Amino acid sequence: MYYMALVTTEWVHQNINNPKVRIVEVDYDPNTAYNVWHVPGAVLITWKELRHPVRRDFIEPEDFERLMSEKGISNDHTVVLYGDFNNWFAAYAFWLFEAYGHEDIRLMDGGRTAWAKEGRPTTQEVPRYPKTQYKVRRVDWGSRRAYLWEVMNKVVHGEIKKSVLLIDVRSPAEYKGEITAPPEYPNEQTQVGGHIPGAVNIPWGQAVDPNTGKFKPPEELKRLYESAGITPDKEVITYCRIGERAAHTWFVLKHILKYPAVRVYDGSWAEWGNLVGAPVEK
């Protein structure tokens, strides 16, 4: 079963030439992804284009408007995101698009992995679309983003596992503090390893079928999270290292399982693991 926010590769295939749809690939490194091949008609957004040029944050609304306009994306487009790393950065972008009020945003189930395994058409041709006049109509981080001070308050005041559930979606080795960065980012380590006190470890990949890259069926996802005590009656906060894997799990809980209160702590371990005096568990 598919939901409004999640579309199949077949749906995307059928809408490649639909002028009302803008397909966007979001990559960590386009040299190993988009530049090798991409969905016909897809434009490229790298995750760094979504980042603020000076401070650790997202680009400002006016810069988001400029980026969308340059990519040929209008407010009225149905934007379909997909990408590498099983849609890590596509989910991260989805989260930002939502916060900046884009009305019709979708994620292609399975990303590049599913598209390739199904033998669907690819190209190296870079499309050129007319520039638009994109406008950010609202900015709404409140229900989507958790900040360091909020998470710290909840830890210090004993709210974790009671009214608030904290999910560390990194690998078990990162969670245990055996390594301080995932293999994909060996040079981006923190000062200490471990996890935020009270956080449960449910690696992001447990929500994905490794053979297809697609999300597991909703009933399996429901069992996965509820068996770990992650229930929809509590506030849920996800985190990883910089927020992209956490956004992937946020998408599962928010848009597939329809949990009402899910946020991403995108400061994640890159912030917490470098903070002097922060409580850490191993």
From TrEMBL:
Residues 17-124, 160-281 form the Rhodanese domain. InterPro entries: Rhodanese-like_dom, Rhodanese-like_dom_sf, Thiosulfate_sulfurtransferase, Thiosulphate_STrfase_CS. One of its GO terms (molecular function) is thiosulfate-cyanide sulfurtransferase activity. It comes from Pyrobaculum oguniense (strain DSM 13380 / JCM 10595 / TE7). SMART domains: RHOD. It holds the Pfam family Rhodanese. The keyword Nucleotide-binding does not apply. Keywords: Repeat, Transferase. This is Sulfurtransferase.
